[in-house]
Amino acid sequence: MSTHQMMALHADTAGGGDSDARQQAPAILEVDNLSVNFGPLRAVDGVSLTVREGDIYALAGESGCGKSTLAYSLLGMVPPPGVVSTGQITFRGHTLTGMDRRKLDQIRGAEISMVFQAAMNAFNPVITIGTQVEHVLQAHPDSFPTAREGREYFEYLLRLVRLDPEVVWKGYESRLSGGMKQRVAIALGLLLRPSVLVLDEPTTALDILNQRLVIDILNDLHETLGVTIIFITHDLALVAELANRVAVMYAGRLVETGTIDEIFYDERRHPYVSALIRAVPSVTADTELIKPIPGRVPSLAELPPGCRFAPRCAQAIDICQSVDPPLLLDAAEHGVACHVVNAGLSEKGLLK
Ligand SMILES: Nc1ncnc2c1ncn2[C@@H]1O[C@H](COP(=O)(O)OP(=O)(O)OP(=O)(O)O)[C@@H](O)[C@H]1O
What we know:
The protein is of the alpha/beta class. It has 13 helices and 12 strands.
């Protein structure tokens, strides 16, 4: 699929809706100068971003750039030995970083819920899906007036993800296809009626028909339940189809944040993002037009001193070799971390 096709599709199908209206929506999750370390390695480095109520927000980037670590930190679930080394995360004004376990447990699942990349293996194979749902409801007795209402709500969710509750409730994980498991995992993630659903690579392990189905279902869920969605992906075509806002990461740093239109159409664009767009495979266009990005993502153990993308960047100038560029926002909150791209606008005072 070419970028133009992605754009055309986006115009028809994207869950983003009116980006101006979304711009005005209140912040639901705010990440401020967040860093996460695994020992001396900084997997997430000084990341700041704002997710607004009703967003479908993509965290995008190549493997190892820190997007899963960032997403896990949104739920206070950085895997050991990782630690939050700087910054904070607030959810509707409550600071999550450093929050005590009991309070965090109340928010997790019920306010912010995650569907893991390993969702395919997230179920207990020896008990039915229905029993697993009952266990979740028992662990959260305040979430519904009665267990029966909880069960009925799950059945409603199963219908929203286009599954037959009769079949799924009594079924075992082994009887579900990969696509069905992913949809059951999404329904389970929504069981406690969270305001934010975080999905790690929601379509990666699926064939193309199931990918399409999951995209349609996520758009439906966003519209029907009004849930804010954050998803992790390495797939720009998925970003264009599903998201209204995106943050692109590179080697632990945020290199660009903005609306879909800003990321794909704005002339002010990070050279890495331009390179990623050129690298999107096209189904119909000549494959010779695809331009892989030369070089490799640097190891976190051997980061270059200046801009982390500089060794692969055709536009790099002297300062890029020595000074890590800050992410500068324009009035519309479109942020780019690039000395070259920001130079003119900075001089005119057009950046925050
Ligand atoms: N459990 C861990 N122990 C040590 N280092 C880790 C751990 N998890 C992540 N890291 C480090 O953090 C970096 C970023 O990993 P992360 O999983 O967040 O990236 P990602 O962009 O989500 O990649 P992928 O798409 O492959 O999951 C890794 O390259 C690794 O150096």
